[in-house]
Amino acid sequence: MGKKGGGRLLQAAKAAKGGGGGPPTKKQKKSHGSGPAQHQKQKQQSTKPSRSASASSAAPPPLSSSSTSGSKKQHKQKQHSEPTIPFSPDENILLIGDGDLSFAVSLVDHHHCTNLTATVYEKDLDELSAKYPHVRANVDKICAVPGCKVLYNVDARRMVPFAHKTKDKQTGRVEQFGTMDRIIFNFPHVGGKSTDVNRQVRYNQELLVDFFKRSLLSLAPGGSVIVTLFEGEPYTLWNIRDLARHSDLAVEKSFKFQARAYPGYHHARTLGVVKNKKGEAAEKAWKGEERPARSYVFVRKDDVPKPPAPGMGKKRKAEESDDEDEEEEDDDDWGSGEDDLEEGLGDDTEGDVDEAEDAADDN
Fold it and tell me: Which InterPro entries would you find in this protein's record (predicted)?
């Protein structure tokens, strides 16, 4: 074999063993690309997740604006789910126009109030019983608690001050101080004096102004006056905040009145229990405690309020900041038609009437 042929055979043997002695050809480059090192690199890439895949699996999807607003709304609803109780059991509490006295009984039985004075407009127990046949049992429950009592023939516009007098030894001047820490008037209303909306609004405004003035004479230093009204017209037309300001009172706060916070409380009509044609108590009578209502807390303009009752001070700042927002939401629900106004006039409270016939009878 010649020298040239022997060299070719040697190169072929080396190539078969993988140790080629010259520069690789294009085919060899392609075959080398799929060698062990490249295979190991591809295996690492397949087992190692990509950056985009790991990021998508680790981070949760961003919240949309609707879900964010929904969570805020749920937080707000949870925040206001607990009823606000604007008094403590040991405070001197005065109830004005308490109807069938079921609210007073709830304060005694469930809130354990020990210094409660409940007043009614009726002149005596017989007149009160004629309107509310079940009221005698309520009177007995209230009077059975030491420090609690029921007073008759009390007019919110002319009530005698609940106060004590002290004499200054140096000057000899006699000063009078109110004794009531909380004065509560739930659902004030003059009744069916008129079927005209504007006149009815004016009558009720006059009632509130006189009540505010008389309340100041009975209000203890640091005390508050609490008035509860139904939401919507015509009650919003009374402008209770402005009436209080003109009576030297300032709005401390307002909150939603929740009847469920007062077990046993039932809304009472001024004219008494609703009766059917047979003269029996109607089973399906309108229930005012189921209607949305709001309580307003007023204090003297130059007075420093007493510390809030237990449970009332929690989240106080948050409640005050949300009051305006809630009332703006309530504004959207206000009635705007004649039907809403007539319903507002007819809905009875502790001083309200239910029907036009009742209004005519009062006239």
Answer: BMT5-like
